[in-house]
Amino acid sequence: MYRYDGTSFVLLTTADGLADNSILCMLQDRAGNIWFGTNEGASRYDGKTFTHYPIQDAPGLNVNSIAQDSAGTLWFATRYGVASDLFRYDGRSFATIERTPGTRFWNVRTVHVDRAGALWLGGQDGLLRRDGDSTTQVSTYFTGYIFEDRAGNLWTSEDHPAVWVLNRSDGTATAQIATGRMIFGSTEDASGTIWFGTSDGVGRYDGKAVTFFY
């Protein structure tokens, strides 16, 4: 992990207290702590020291994504979980969350809490929406990333049989934008343009067309 102070970059590794040197995601919680998802659980940085959270009693848990809801609860999307690949942390302990009793979530690549408080999961199971203890299947295609823009539209990347696509959903209808490339995250700029990283350059969607930059 690299920290930039406005002048220079500082490299932080396991020698500084990180759980692992492979960093898969980051989140700053409401208290100002920074959480890092690694290949060996999660690390929390309070501005001075790192604290390691293995999350489960087994090695090799990949933490792919972290989100925090309005109650302050942290949600961890993982790979290689023993009983499931979704965990909840209330500030005291971790709880394994199953899709239904005895049925696990598989390889959850991203977790997102929308402005209405619903929990969205993307991964091997497709795109799922979770309200309380109820889970709804929205799409069966592998979903890599979920992003919510300022207008509340939900953007998701899906691996369709022929081509990777970027979906835009406003809650009533979904528009599909073909990209042809594996997508690794997306964001929105000040003008509302959507940018997304791919396996072959950066993509930009201005509402009409996709442009790639290499």
Would you summarize the structure shown here?
The protein has strands at residues 2-4, 9-11, 23-28, 34-38, 41-45, 50-53, 62-68, 74-79, 86-89, 94-96, 108-113, 119-123, 126-131, 134-139, 142-148, 154-159, 164-169, 174-178, 183-188, 194-198, 201-205, 210-213. By secondary structure, the protein is mostly beta strands.
Key attributes of the depicted protein:
214 residues, mainly beta, Methylamine Dehydrogenase, Chain H, four-stranded antiparallel beta sheet
Tally of DSSP β-strands:
22
> What is the residue-averaged pLDDT?
95
> Helical proportion?
under 10%
Strand % is over 45%
Note down, in words, how this protein is organized.
The protein is mainly beta and 214 residues long. It has one domain (2-213): YVTN repeat-like/Quinoprotein amine dehydrogenase (Methylamine Dehydrogenase, Chain H). Helices cover 0% and strands 53% of the residues. A four-stranded antiparallel β-sheet has the order 3-4-5-6, with no helix packed on it. A four-stranded antiparallel β-sheet has the order 7-8-9-10, with no helix packed on it. The protein has a four-stranded antiparallel β-sheet with strand order 11-12-13-14, with no helix packed on it.
